[in-house]
Amino acid sequence: NLQMTTFIGSGVHFLHAFIENQKGHLYTRVYHDSISQRFLLPYIADHPRLFHRQWLRSALIQACQYCNRFDDFEEERLYIELTFLANGYSFDFIEYHLKQFFVHFNPKQYEQLNLNRSTYHLFRDELFCRLDQQKCDLEQEEQLLQKNRQFIQLSYLFDWGSRCQFNQKFYQLWFKILEQDPQFKKHGLKIKLNTKHCYSSNTLLARSITHF
User: What's the whole-model pTM score?
Assistant: First the structure.
């Protein structure tokens, strides 16, 4: 549940983003709740190393998206590194995945990236372009699959818990049971999971009362 507070000011934070109007200029960075315990990684029972590797990449992408200043990005990158070190990951693990991240979004693929205040904005623009292109390619792929009747969307009720972990387990079973079947695999089907919020009885009752 999200707790909303109404106030008037030049800056506001929502979830993990801090947004501020600095004399007519937009300023954004990652926001960390002061009352939350820091330097914690999400708890994962199965394959934590794989999940944390994906989380590291997502955290770096979020840092670059939210931080419109190089110094803030560097501070957030350092926080991410310290979080992994505090949870037992090695320098080699962190450095390897940092390098992979910078290489992937390097605007000049054939030149070594020297990230600083001057090059950060070019790197950030490239990241946004790559993510937009990736989203566009995915939408086109889904449209083509739908046209060929190869796209399946399944929805399930979600109340609480690890949605990402459930989806990951589902796709693992899908691949293990169905994708390994030659007769089934030839159809080239792709499945996408969607969630529907499971409203509580009190919420549904409140909704019904408002319609009287």
Answer: 0.69
